[in-house]
Amino acid sequence: MELTGPAEVRAALRDVEYLADDRISQVVYLAEQLGKPILVEGPAGVGKTELAKALSTIFDRRLIRLQCYEGLDESKAIYEWNYKKQLLRIQAGGEEAWGSLEEDIFSDEFLLARPLLEGILSEQPVVLLIDEIDRVEVETEALLLEVLSDFQVSIPELGTMAARTQPLVLLTSNNTRELSEALKRRCLFLHIGYPTVEREQEILLARVDGLTEMLGEQVARVVSSIRDLDLKKAPSVSESIDWARTLLALGIDRVDSDVLDETLHVLLKYQADIDTARRELVEA
Amino acid sequence: MLLDVLTAFVDELREAGIPVSMVEAIDAADALRFTDIGDRDAFKATLGATLVKNERHYRAFETAFEVYFALDRSGPGDGTGEDAGGEDRPDRGEQRNRGPQGQGSGGGGGGDVDLDALRQALFDAMRDADMAALRDLAGEAVDDLAGIEPGRPVGGTYYLYRTMRQLDVDGLRSRLEASLTEDADGGLDERLGREEAAARIAELRSELEAEIRRRLVADRGREAVAKTLRKPLLEDVDLMHATRTDLVDLEQAIRPLTRKLATRLAQRRKRRRDGRLDFRRTVRRSLASGGVPIDPVFRAPRITRPEIFLLCDVSGSMATFSRFTLQFTYAMNAHFSKLRSFAFIDSLDEVTDYFAVGSDFGEALHRVSTEAKVVHLDGHSDYGRALRQFWEQHGHELTPRSVVIIAGDARGNYRSPHAEVLAGVRRAARGLYWLNPEPRAYWDTGDSVMGRYSVHCDGVFEVRTLRQLEHFIEQVALPVPSVRS
Ligand SMILES: Nc1ncnc2c1ncn2[C@@H]1O[C@H](COP(=O)(O)OP(=O)(O)O)[C@@H](O)[C@H]1O
Ligand SMILES: [Mg+2]
């Protein structure tokens, strides 16, 4: 879809039930126009991954996702030779001359394209999500960055494979470590924090069927108040959605101290945090 | 013209300590082509996304942004801003003329201003959450009450308090609280009402600040105002003099650093392909494919997890710093299975258990000051005694995997430093580091015996800021003596 400005981006996102703010919609619009990757950073559960999914829908592009983890290497991120298949081919080859065999087994057919290569080789432009990049080692980060900068991958046995289309790239980080300056320089930076009460209410109304405006507002206000406490882990948007669903399931249409007391465990995962919230909000 | 302002703005960001590269400045200019610069939020989003790549720097960015693009409230304008508070706000001209003392008498104004009416209007706007009205009224309040004197080099805070005092903001807050908790049904509702009141008062305050800043900028120019508003970035805040809010923010910022330290200390093989082939298992597995080694097995990369021993001076002179190092200790626990921590003043005690995963930091801190046996005599640091105690009680536990980190100012009140103990520690351990929160220039002055200790250390670091802590972490990627598996 052709989106002519940030307001249109925002409206399109809203249509797929993703509630953006000014910062999000402007940065998405820029990324689309400038062809630059977005580095989305923020605490867990504020809609970073969801943003990539929503963008894939509104731009009508396939979503290719690379979930990062400690120890991820280029064979899982970029490409790998299918050596099982290669070995079988060698066995089947019998007396065949090595030269032609070699040429054969190092061809496209034996190449396993992993998300990054797949993303740039796609005939139709895709949305490429590199999720939680802060989990990989610095060295792997540099490898990924190289692909994103050059939009090509060189494979010693095959030569250089250049991008067919340019993906819209989102990298996410929970900020468990500092990313390299080089990576940050390349990207547009988008921090997503916890939403304002108004935006959270909208998110809740969009995502929780049957929620009334009033209960949505109450949930958003209470959650926002809880986030201001000194906690080990503040409730995320997904937890506030869970809480709203729980309340509905219990047939509750208004939050008071008793209701909060009985359902706090849906919002908070640590006993110490539950105690804190109880002290501050329930017994107050 | 916009480009000129942009250049000046980028200079200001750099002055404030935010690293903006040439490429990023160009990216910003480029991105402005796709930005409706009449839309302030969009304009700010574009500059933020292209120039500031670290959320810790965002507040400093916002301050600079407010100054550089403050003059025209309908949009960022071209920033030359001669029209400050001018024709675009005709509704206020009348008000301003009404209070002649407002501009320049220095008496604080307010004489013939209808203060009660202004207060009431502010109250109504806050009660109804009418932000547009609030903004206009804040402008009036500053015109009438701040008594800004052109050319006088007074900071904005002075004018802010002068205005707030005359508006009786505390009184407004009480009224607002009363009004917003009027229909409250129970304690929870009441609390939410009070928080809402506080949020709207905060809104008023920030509108007043913005109005004052606008006028100061018109008077003295952007550069001068930006300079007075500059604050050290979080990573440059001096830990010895950090405020409570700084400390809270710092605690957030420490977590990523500890993970970084963990990865640097845990030397590991980078890629699976570097792992050595496990020949026996490969052959065994190949039987399934008729002897063809279809599925080679690599040995798992060896990971050497270091054991950390952290010794922390918690004496009074180190109060803020030790809170910081203990916070660091606490955060490190998530990444090191073998982290032992010790606190000392003139006696040393192990505090590892207080900081166990899942413990509460505030609680742990409390236990260090109440339960840990860190005082032997008089509560003055005695490094020699504490180090000897460490060596006698725990020296035999040090191995070639141990890394010992000592945090303290090395001020031993002229008691014997017993530096020879550290020579032993270093021989027994893989590494010995010292973090000293004092400026290097003060080391070895007075009762500081840093020099006596530093000769035995693998590294001694001045760590008074987060940035320096990060520097330390970057320096400690030690080659681990390869342990045969
Ligand atoms: N802006 C938003 N609009 C709609 N839903 C949202 C938004 N932000 C978060 N959510 C909800 O929160 C959930 C968690 O978001 P997710 O993208 O997984 O978080 P993370 O930031 O950890 O990647 C989503 O599945 C979605 O239901
Ligand atoms: Mg995610």
What this model shows, in words?
The complex is a heterodimer of chains A (284) and B (485). Helix content of chain A is 51%, strand content 13%. With 284 residues, chain A is an alpha/beta fold. Chain A has 2 domains: 6-71 and 123-191, Rossmann fold; 197-282. In chain A, α10 crosses α11 (213-227). Chain B is an alpha/beta fold. Chain B has 3 domains: 2-68; 92-231, no CATH class; 244-271 and 304-476, Rossmann fold. In chain B, 50% of the residues lie in helices and 7% in strands. In chain B, β1, α14 (319-332) and β2 (339-344) form a beta-alpha-beta unit. Chains A and B meet through α2, α5, α9, β9 and α11 of A and α2, α3, α10 and α12 of B. The complex binds adenosine-5'-diphosphate and magnesium ion.
Oligomer: heterodimer
Strand content of chain A: 5-15%
Query: How are the strands of the largest sheet of chain A arranged?
Result: 2-5-8-1-9
Number of helices of chain B: 19
**Low-confidence parts of chain A lasting 5 or more residues at pLDDT below 50?**
none
How many individual domains of chain A? 2
Task: List each distinct ligand once.
Answer: adenosine-5'-diphosphate, magnesium ion
Secondary-structure map:
The complex is a heterodimer of chains A (284) and B (485).
Chain A: H1 6-15, H2 22-34, E1 38-41, H3 48-58, E2 63-67, H4 74-77, E3 79-81, H5 83-93, H6 98-105, E4 111-113, H7 115-121, E5 127-131, H8 138-150, E6 152-155, E7 159-162, E8 168-173, H9 181-186, E9 188-191, H10 197-207, H11 213-227, H12 237-249, H13 257-267, H14 271-282
Parallel strand pairs in A: 1-8, 1-9, 2-5, 5-8
Antiparallel strand pairs in A: 3-4, 6-7
Chain B: H1 2-15, H2 22-32, H3 40-51, H4 58-68, H5 90-98, H6 115-127, H7 131-146, H8 156-167, H9 169-180, H10 187-220, H11 222-229, H12 244-265, H13 279-286, E1 307-313, H14 319-332, E2 339-344, E3 348-350, H15 361-370, H16 383-394, E4 402-407, H17 420-428, E5 431-436, H18 450-454, E6 459-462, H19 466-475
Parallel strand pairs in B: 1-2, 1-4, 4-5, 5-6
Antiparallel strand pairs in B: 2-3
Helix pairs in contact in B: 1-4, 2-3, 4-11, 5-7, 6-7, 6-9, 7-8, 7-10, 8-9, 8-10, 9-10, 10-11, 12-14, 12-19, 16-17
The structure holds adenosine-5'-diphosphate (ADP) and magnesium ion.
Adenosine-5'-diphosphate (ADP) is lined by residues 17-19, 44-50, 203, 206-207, 237-238, 241 of chain A.
